[in-house]
Design brief:
13 strands, Aminopeptidase, 7 helices, N-FG_amidohydro, 9-stranded mixed β-sheet, N-formylglutamate amidohydrolase, two-stranded antiparallel sheet, 276 residues
């Protein structure tokens, strides 16, 4: 893996080079093993939290982990194109617009002992901006090369805090063109519902059951590109004990191995349907 500047990463994308890179500030990674008409993203996988913020933060390290999406990068990391956040969403949230990306409160609790300085906020927002410069370059190249593209936007959610039964998988589709893409969404829901997991975890998949797909990542791509579909795909945190801070690697591995088969099949169906 190379350490590259944003300009170098964008230059390599424009030249259709393959590479594994981390940004020079270590804020996110991007690997391109080959150029294909689909990409995977794990924008909330990151847990890094820069040291200059530690003493001012009211949330514990566990409280930050609880609201992040640990292991989502590992679930998709073997696919040809993967972009993933390294930093915690408590530093800046890549799934929120720039005006709201740096939290003042987080999940009902004040985040900072003292108001963030302008310099700290600017540093966080620059990372947010750099990420979207690369996203724009990446999707531009994929649409240019293939006419159309599909992005699998992987997230997780804390299922135990719901007071009703919730699905293992949820697709958020409220901000995509469902008239155009509804059938391919249902095909993806069906594929997710077929995933078999250890410990008798129910293989259920629903659309807009727990979350609606209101994230900025999906909206940004949808608003800037006419022929790219983003599927906001959330797995319940059945792969960990969310209250005990324990990951179940056998569940993560089961998800990863089955997505390695199902996801490219679905992407191929999408491409054959919409590359016209």
């Amino acid at each position: 893996m190379e350490r590259l500047s944003i300009a170098q990463i964008i230059s390599k994308i424009k030249a259709e080079e393959t590479f594994h890179a981390v940004t020079d500030d270590y804020s996110f990674t991007l690997k391109i093993d080959r150029y294909v008409p689909y990409a995977c993203a794990a924008i909330h996988d990151g847990h890094q939290f820069r040291k200059s913020l530690w003493d001012n933060c009211l949330h514990t390290e566990y409280e930050r982990w609880y609201e992040e999406d640990p292991e989502t990068k590992n679930m998709i990391n073997l696919h040809p194109i993967v972009i993933a956040g390294c930093d915690s969403r408590f530093e800046y949230d890549l799934n929120r617009d720039p005006e709201n990306a740096v939290f003042e409160t987080a999940w009902g609790k004040e985040l900072w002992k003292n108001r963030l300085s302008d310099s700290e906020k600017t540093m966080s927002l620059q990372k947010h901006s750099n990420f979207y410069k690369v996203v724009y370059a990446l999707i531009s190249k994929l649409e240019e090369k293939f006419n159309t593209c599909i992005v699998y936007d992987m997230h997780s959610y804390n299922w135990q805090r719901w007071d009703r039964e919730v699905p293992t998988w949820n697709l958020g589709t409220s901000n995509i063109d469902n008239q155009r893409f509804g059938k391919i969404v249902e095909t993806w829901r069906t594929a997710l519902a077929s995933i078999q997991l250890p410990h008798n975890i129910k293989p259920t998949a629903r659309i807009n059951n727990t979350f609606k797909g209101n994230g900025y990542f999906l909206k940004y791509i949808t608003n800037n590109f006419n022929d790219t579909l983003v599927l906001a795909t959330e797995i319940a945190k059945v792969y960990c004990e969310e209250y005990e801070y324990v990951i179940y690697p056998e569940v993560v591995a089961a998800v990863e191995s089955q997505l390695q088969i199902l996801l490219p099949q679905h992407a191929d169906t999408f491409y054959k349907t919409f590359n016209s």
